[in-house]
Design brief:
This protein has 116 residues and is an all-beta fold. Helices cover 0% and strands 54% of the residues. It is built from no helices and eleven strands. A hairpin with an 8-residue loop joins strand 9 (89-96) and strand 10. It is globular and about 40 Å long. The model has no long low-confidence stretch (mean pLDDT 96).
Length: 116
C-alpha cells in the first residue's frame, strides 16, 4: 500500500489549495486527512467513505474545506478555501482498510503554509 500526498504550498490568507492523495495497492473503506502544526499534536481534519455517504470535518475547517474522492483513480482530495495562518501544518492522508477500524496506512505528508 502506498499513499502519495501532493498539492501543498505557500499561499496567502484567504487563498485556496487542493490537496490530493493517490492510493495504490487496493481500495479502502475510508480515506482521510490529518494535520500537524508546529509544536502541536496531529489532529483530524476530514474523512470520507468510499460511497461518499459519510463525511466528517473538524469544527475548525467546516465550511471552508471540502473532501471528495474519485474511486476510479483511488484518490482523495481536500479542497481548502479561505485559508488562515492557523491552517499552516503538514497535511497527511490516511486510509482505513475494509475490515479494519483504524487508520492503518499513512502518506508522507505535504506542507501547507499560509502567510498573513
Amino acid at each position: 500500500v502506498q499513499l502519495q500526498a501532493s498539492g501543498g504550498g505557500l499561499v496567502q490568507a484567504g487563498d485556496s489549495l487542493r490537496l490530493s492523495c493517490a492510493a495504490s495497492g487496493r481500495t479502502f473503506s475510508r480515506m482521510g486527512w490529518f494535520r500537524r502544526a508546529p509544536g502541536k499534536e496531529r489532529e483530524f481534519v476530514s474523512s470520507i467513505t468510499r460511497s461518499g455517504g459519510e463525511i466528517y470535518y473538524a469544527d475548525s475547517v467546516k465550511g471552508r474545506f471540502t473532501i471528495s474522492r474519485d474511486n476510479a483513480k483511488n484518490t482523495a482530495y481536500l479542497q481548502m478555501s479561505s485559508l488562515k495562518p492557523e491552517d499552516t501544518a503538514v497535511y497527511y492522508c490516511a486510509v482505513i482498510s475494509y475490515g479494519s477500524a483504524s487508520w492503518g496506512h499513512w502518506g508522507q505528508g505535504t506542507q501547507v503554509t499560509v502567510s498573513s
